[in-house]
Structures are given as C-alpha cells and as structure tokens.
Amino acid sequence: MIESIEPNEPKTVKRWTFLTNHALVLLFVARHHRITARELCLELGITERAVRMIIANLEEAGYLQKIREGRTVKYVVNHDMPMRHPTQQDVAIGDFLETLRTSLPSAGKRSRA
Question: What's the domain count of the chain?
Fold first, then answer.
C-alpha cells in the first residue's frame, strides 16, 4: 500500500544535505585559514561545541592541523589525505575541496579573504 501526504497535512520530513558538517567545516577552513570556531558556527548554523568537536575529529584523523600564531590560530588542510569512504579512497581530499571551491559560489554568508 502506498501512502501519500495530503497537501494540508504537516510534513515530518527530516532535512538533510549532501555535504556533512565535517565536509563543510573542512571546506570553510580550506578557504579561510584563520576562521574561528565562532565564525564557523555562525556560518554553518551549528553549535560552537559541534564545530570544536568536528575540528578535533579532523585534526585527530590528520586532515587538519592547527598552528598557533600569537593569539590567533591558523588552520592548514592536509590536501594529500584520502577521502574516508572506501569507494573514494583513491581521491585526495584536496582534489575534492578544489572541485567544490571551483564549482560552488563563495561559501558562507559573507565574503572573506
């Protein structure tokens, strides 16, 4: 039996996206090396705690390196790391990020240098 949703019934469809929060954080950091966790959470619409956990995950896995420069932090993406999914492990994360960088409009609500 196939059920249909009537136009007047509320939809309880969970919102999903093609890019995970991990991918979005990595994309933003690749574009803006000095972006802060606070700026990331505002740009992505996730909590600062979630951003910090994602950054820690990416650092632990070797995709991201945090370099302290005085009172600020600079992030460096390891472009040679492979994608994590077994079917894409022959693709470097740098190639993936470059494809997104050239294919998508500037990431975020505001332009950053």
Answer: 1
